[in-house]
Amino acid sequence: MQIARYKIKRSKINHIFISHLHGDHYFGLIGLITSMGLLGRENDLHLYGPKGLDEIIALQLKVAVTTLPFTLHFHPLQNEGLIVNHHKYQIECLETQHRIPCWGFVFREKKVPRRINKESVVQYEIPTAYYESLKQGKDYERKDGTIVRNELVTFANSPSKSYAYSADTIYNENIIDKVKNVDVLYHETTYLKDLEDRAALRFHSTTVQAATIATKANVKKLLIGHFSSKYEELSQFLIEAKEVFDNTALAVEGVTFTV
Asked: What domain range includes position 199?
C-alpha cells in the first residue's frame, strides 16, 4: 500500500473523504479500512462520501466475513456546507460537475488566538481576567474610558491555513467563491488546453481552465493533477498552467507540499 510506502501512520487517520464513486478514487478504501482492523485499531473512524459508499463497504465486509474491531461512521454527502467542526479546524464540502455525483472539500484552520505580551499587559496594568478577550483581538477599556489597543499588548499568531481539493470536474466557475483566497488549491487537469472539447465531453478540465479558476479565486498556490494516461510527459502541463497562473506545481505521487 502506498500509505505504508510513504510511512504514513494509519493510526493517525480519523477522517477519510471520498469525492465520488469512480474506481480510481475508492477501490483501495476497503484494503485500508480492513488493514486498520488487523493492526488493532480501536478508535472510531469517520468516512465521508457519496450515498451508496456505505452499502459497498458493508457488502465487501460481509462477503469477506470480516468484522471491524472499531466503529466505522459513515457520513453521506448530500448538501454543500460544513461537515466537520473541530475546535482547531473545519471542513466543508462543495459540489463539482462530473458525470456522477462528485464532491470537493475545503479544509480551513480556525483563527489562531493572539499571544499575550506578558511585559506589556503588566505595563498597562491589565487584569488577567481580560486575557481571553485580548487573545480574541479585543481592545481593553480602562475604568476612565481610555482604550488600550490590542496590538499594544498582544502578538499576532501564525495565520490560519486553508486547502481546497476540487476533485474531478468540468470547468465550473461555481466553485470560485467557495475556494476564494485559499492557500493551496488542487484542481484536476486531465488534458492539455488543445483538448478542451474532449475535456468537456468527459466532464474533466484542462490546464488553462484550472489556472483560470485559481486566478479568479485569488488562491496563493495551485496544484494540478489527474493527468490522462495518454500523456507520457507532464512538463507541458506545468508550462501551460503557469502561463495563466505562475505559482503552479504538479501534484505527482511522492511529492509533498507545505500549506
From this structure: 79-111+159-259
